[in-house]
Design a protein that fits this description.
alpha/beta; about 25% strand
């Protein structure tokens, strides 16, 4: 099993290009199921979750041409197997996103209950209740969701909890439903709006995406389209946090500053000097960061996917910070590993109190999930001596060539068996 070996104490400096967004690419790949004509994508990141999704589509009978340069063409004209098996979806919760498109276009679907990072419960109830409101008959048998519907019918759906994948699944199901669907209390994340824009390019009629109410007027069919995946705001935020923790200076290229407003506000509060362009962010941390408190919240609030990275910054900042995690109930596992490096962190339920220390010490640590992996890299970059991070397979699910990109900023980092 691969590990990362990092020699800390190096100030990050330079320029880095941001890859396409994992959380945008996965639902857009699944959206190809809705059409009998090809969907051509650009800026698709080379990640394990993307490869798993492409393999899943291929196993269902789709033609998937991944050219290896960020361009992918998916043709779902002939789907012979309307099933997402356990062996492919057990490591990736986003696999649930094939449920709505399969049901909408083909009238039936069989999808294994999904897996993913062990950071808390992610019930599929919202997906099931929403699809039932659209007229689907659904049962759960032997670990699989079995769904049938001759044709879905438009409905008004209120989401009890703001859910990104729930919103995306129901939005995709509704584009081929008969009549109008209104999704209330919808997720507002940029990735949701990205999916809606791609669906509209395919001939759908979706309005309001990015707001709390989305309106979908069903159409009979979707057509071929081309789409470019948006930049990954979490990857961009991770590099900015790493530069801040090492008192560095970076220019992040290919990022949308508007998608990172909450993160940029916190970094400025920590003492960073930040300038933004149309698709770039420049950060300079001239001195030791000041500790900043944060409470995670659905977009446009502070993203839960950036909580661990901010904690790593707080660990070496001046002062004390309070971090409240409101999205997932088990997302402080990285704190225990940081404490092995000398971090002063106290956990009380969904709240972490972080007392900054002048420097962390390198140690052997273990990654527990995707964003925890990124936070341990940041902690290691800011630490004295060598840190070895085990179980980094999580990283390959969500960060494209992260060690190469960090090396380009001066980090002393390498992958070892």
């Amino acid at each position: 099993m691969d590990k990362l070996v990092i020699e800390g104490g190096v100030r990050l400096a330079g320029e880095v290009d941001i890859s396409g967004a994992k959380n945008a690419a996965l639902p857009v790949l699944c959206a190809a199921i809705l059409s009998a004509e090809p969907l051509e994508l650009a800026n698709v990141p080379r990640l394990r979750d993307v490869a798993t999704t492409e393999k899943l589509l291929g196993q269902m009978g789709a033609s998937v041409a991944d050219r290896g340069d960020g361009s992918v063409v998916i043709d779902c004209a002939q789907l012979a197997r309307l099933e997402a098996p356990y062996e492919l979806v057990r490591t990736m919760r986003a696999s649930i996103l094939v449920l709505g498109p399969m049901l909408a276009r083909h009238g039936r679907a069989r999808v294994s209950l999904p897996g993913g990072c062990a950071i808390g419960q992610r019930p599929v109830d919202l997906h099931i209740k929403g699809l039932q409101a659209l007229g689907a008959e659904i049962s759960i048998e032997h670990g699989y969701i079995e769904a049938r519907a001759p044709r879905l019918r438009g409905a008004r759906i209120f989401m009890d909890i703001v859910s990104v994948t729930g919103t995306e699944n129901l939005m995709m199901a509704a584009v081929l439903a008969q009549g109008r669907t209104v999704i209330e209390n919808a997720a507002r994340e940029p990735e949701v709006a990205e999916l809606a824009h791609c669906l509209n390019a395919m001939g759908a009629r979706v309005s309001g995406a990015g707001e709390s109410e989305i309106v979908i007027d069903g159409v009979d069919r979707l057509h071929r389209a081309q789409w470019r995946i948006m930049p990954d705001r979490i990857e961009a935020g991770t590099f900015l946090a790493a530069a801040a923790a090492t008192r560095g200076e970076v220019l992040v290229r290919g990022a949308n500053p508007a998608h990172l407003s909450a993160v940029l506000d916190k970094l400025r509060e920590a003492g960073a000097r930040i300038d933004t362009g149309a698709d770039s962010i420049h950060l300079l941390m001239p001195e030791r960061a000041r500790a900043v408190s944060v409470r995670t919240a659905p977009y446009p609030g502070f993203a839960t996917d950036m909580q661990a990275q901010l904690m790593a910054l707080d660990c070496v900042a001046e002062g004390t910070a309070t971090i409240v995690e409101t999205i997932f109930e088990n997302r402080f596992m990285h704190a225990l590993e940081m404490k092995r490096m000398g971090a002063q962190i106290e956990i009380d339920g969904n709240t972490a109190i972080v007392q900054g220390v002048p420097a962390l010490d390198g140690a052997a640590v273990m990654a527990t999930d995707l964003r925890a992996s990124a936070s341990l890299i940041i902690a290691a970059l800011a630490a004295r001596g060598e840190t070895v991070i085990d179980r980094i397979y999580h990283l390959d699910r969500g960060y494209e060539a992260i060690e190469r990109k960090l090396s380009g900023l001066g980090a002393r980092i390498r992958r070892a068996a």
